[in-house]
Amino acid sequence: MKNTKKQHLPQKTCPVCGLPFTWRKKWEKNWDSVKYCSEKCRRNKTTSV
Q1: Could you give the CA distance from residue 5 to residue 45 in angstroms, rounded to a whole number?
Q2: Around Cβ 23, how many Cβ atoms within 10 Å?
Q3: InterPro entries from the xrefs (predicted)?
Q4: Taking Cα atoms as reference points, which of 17, 20, 23, 12 lies closest to residue 48?
Q5: pLDDT, tens digit, for every residue of 1-48?
Q6: What pLDDT shows up at residue 11?
Q7: 0.85 surpassed by pTM
Q8: What is the extent of the structural domain holding 37?
Q9: pLDDT at residue 45, as a whole number
């Protein structure tokens, strides 16, 4: 993902809050397994909107 502009980064939609979130460097090795946009949404996954 080096030298990629922000608008060209992959996006996913959070199943809890429904908001889109983009790829982050810390998720580089496990992007396929990332489901939630934040730790807060991961903790509240049973109370989805």
Answers
A1: 31
A2: 17
A3: UCP037205 (IPR017136)
A4: 17
A5: 567 787 789 999 999 999 999 999 999 999 999 999 999 999 998 754
A6: 93
A7: no
A8: 11-45
A9: 82
CA atoms 31, 37, 42, 48: torsion sign: negative
* Residue 24 within a domain: yes
Classify residue 1: in a domain, yes or no.
no
> Is residue 4 in some structural domain?
no
CA distance 19 to 33: 17
| Phi/psi at 21 (5° precision) | -135, 150
**8 Å CB contact between 7 and 23:** no
For the chain, how many structural domains are there in total?
A: 1
Q: Is residue 5 included in any domain, yes or no?
A: no
